[in-house]
Amino acid sequence: MYHYDDFDQAFVDARVAQFRDQVDRRLAGDLTEEQFRPHRLMNGLYLQLHAYMLRVAIPYGTLDARQMRKLAEIARVYDRGYGHFTTRQNIQYNWPALKDTPDILAELASVEMHAIQTSGNCIRNVTADHFAGVAHDEIADPRPYAEILRQWSSLHPEFSFLPRKFKIAVNGATHDRAVIQAHDIGLQVVRNEGGEIGFAVYVGGGLGRTPFVGRKVRAFLPERDLLGYVEAILRVYNLEGRRDNKYKARIKILMHEKTLETLKGEIEAEFEARDRALLDLPPEEVARVAAFFAPPALELKKPVSDRVERRRDKDARFASFLAANVTPHKAPGHVVVTVSLKPIGAPPGDCSADQMDAVADLAEDYSHGEIRVSHEQNLILPHVALGDLPAVYDRLASVGLATPNAGQISDIIACPGLDYCALATARSIPVAERIAQKFGDGAKARAIGPLKVKISGCINACGHHHVGHIGILGLERAGEETYQITLGGSGDENAAIGQIVGPGFSYENVVEAVETIVETYMGLRADASETFLDAFRRVGLAPFKEALYERSAGSDI
Amino acid sequence: MALWRLGGFADDGFARLADADALPSDGAVIVSLGRWLSERETLTARPAPVGVAVEAGADAQAHLADLAGRPLIALAFAKFADGRAFSYARLLRDRHGFRGELRATGDVLIDEIPLMLRCGFDAFEVENGPTLAALEAGRLPGPAIHYQPASGAVAETSPGPRPWLRASAAEDRPLSRPRGPSADC
Ligand code: SF4
């Protein structure tokens, strides 16, 4: 993985010193809250419902055991013993004191981490496929490009006061695990006929109250032009993005209002006018950064392990874990283990300091010290030898981290909602907990197969409900929580915004409605291999509508 | 209010002219963009320097090429940081070859000055007390090393090995220079 050199270290240290000075000035009254606000946001510090919240970047979701232990230590010393992994490869601490935040940032800097640009109207933490470097279907590792973009965007003098936040994601495999089409810029690594690496560039994706799937502005952008082209997009956006209404300020609205052709023309013109010498990426430099991400030397192993087979036969829960949480690694005899942070009945993404330490220990003992964080709010041990699975599973189980539900109906993404968020119009975590309890992580959930449920507590859509196979949006109508359900959303390479199924459901009835939807799917699927999403694409909304509203089951009306 | 340039506080050689004021026959003046557009002929014929001020929130993009021949352009910042002026500065300096004084006015605060400098601003009208105090103490906050090239008008070194890295010239940052590679490594 990437390691800071003197330059990188000096940069984060200077940034910590600057923030310490800003906090001192704020506490002394030299900076008003209004003046302080953009600076604290640029350093990841939000003012939440109950207290400050600090959001720490885990760039492109890769970290090592030492960094995970530091996150645990911060949770213990400065927070209430836990942290919350988010949908954008960040970790949030919900209870830090303002005066402590410079010390927390200094602790982070000591392990090559930071909270730079995790909030505010600037270029946010660049995200990538959490299976980068280990996936079978990879064209090239996306992380070197994400790291180069992270550097280029750090305190960019021109783009620190954009109309609104700006999110970039990079995917390097044929299957899109980074939801790139829901980002302001989505970069898909591709090869042209000549075998050269480049990017398909998508612009203007985003969820929120007006969801759009990103539009392709370039089918092949040569690797060399990455920074020049991204800078051109940002400049057009900075100059022309709307500043009169924060709900219309994202680049997706500019794309919508200007049309794809016009915006693309402006981006290309800006790109043509650039100073080539400044931002062209020399191949040697890309190779130098890429070398940091070279996979560890893995011993070749047999693709079958007797130890694993014996345990599978006699332990149904272990068998479930194998089926749901274990993915093949590109190196034979190795696997990628997803550590679910969705235990049945607990808030999605929460992780205690002890659990973080346990994952760090496991990474050191079994995964070459490496850990990943996924946008699905789970952790990943990327390089586990197949034969070590029983030991890894047992140790995960001993700290409550062996929930065998990755990718299943109870592996739910849910935003903080009314329990923590000042903007919420409804609860989301308790709805996730009730759905998880209803379907569990056993045979019932396995029979349903892959199904992504995503829940947001208001139209800002932080829970990505628009791209959930089943999306749930909590609203408030006449003082009552009401939940609108969308079906058929998807965040992969065939990205789609879910369609509203009909009138909303009450807090009491929403789980029953989900059950009706699932039963309807089970009844109409061609066979067990037809996933919910495939079945929905075949049959559309009608059968679900009928089951929900025309028969009485689960309906409010 | 005081005028600050790299190197210290300076006299403002320009007088601000309200739109209703008569044009004096000599002395450097700054007029509004509106006045510049409507009285361009008179203003260009005038032998003494005429700078142009663009108010905060105005869409100046279409006029940048036209303004690039002026000896001074003042771009105002509104309270809620409207970041367009950062791009105007880059375009004026790097696309339209503007070599006159680029002055930041309005809500100019110490934490934004380093970013403004990197985009090509070289003069700052400062009212905010803590900002004045910091400038008097010779204190520019923030890292003096950078992850991306600045405007071509800004003197920075390229510390390598990554070609996009930059370092501010040492004399720009009297007190806040962190440890880091020197310019020649
Ligand atoms: S979707 Fe709404 S309620 Fe949920 S975290 Fe975002 S702003 Fe808060």
UniProtKB/TrEMBL annotation, chain A:
Top-level taxon of origin: Bacteria
Xref: Pfam families: NIR_SIR (PF01077), NIR_SIR_ferr (PF03460)
GO molecular function: 4 iron, 4 sulfur cluster binding; heme binding; metal ion binding; oxidoreductase activity
Domain Nitrite/sulphite reductase 4Fe-4S: 119-272, 409-551
Domain (Nitrite/Sulfite reductase ferredoxin-like) ranges: 52-110, 345-398
Keywords of the record: 4Fe-4S, Heme, Iron, Iron-sulfur, Metal-binding, Oxidoreductase
InterPro entries: NIR_SIR_4Fe-4S (IPR051329), NiRdtase/SiRdtase_haem-b_fer (IPR005117), Nit/Sulf_reduc_fer-like_dom_sf (IPR036136), NO2/SO3_Rdtase_4Fe4S_dom (IPR006067), NO2/SO3_Rdtase_4Fe4S_sf (IPR045854)
Alphabetized PANTHER family for the sequence: BLR3264 PROTEIN (PTHR32439:SF9), FERREDOXIN--NITRITE REDUCTASE, CHLOROPLASTIC (PTHR32439)
Protein name: Sulfite reductase (NADPH) hemoprotein beta-component
Species in which this protein is naturally found: Roseiarcus fermentans
From TrEMBL, chain B:
Superkingdom: Bacteria
InterPro entries xrefs: UCP030820
A Pfam family recorded for this sequence: DUF934
Region (Disordered): 150-185
Protein's name in the database: Uncharacterized protein (DUF934 family)
Protein's organism: Roseiarcus fermentans
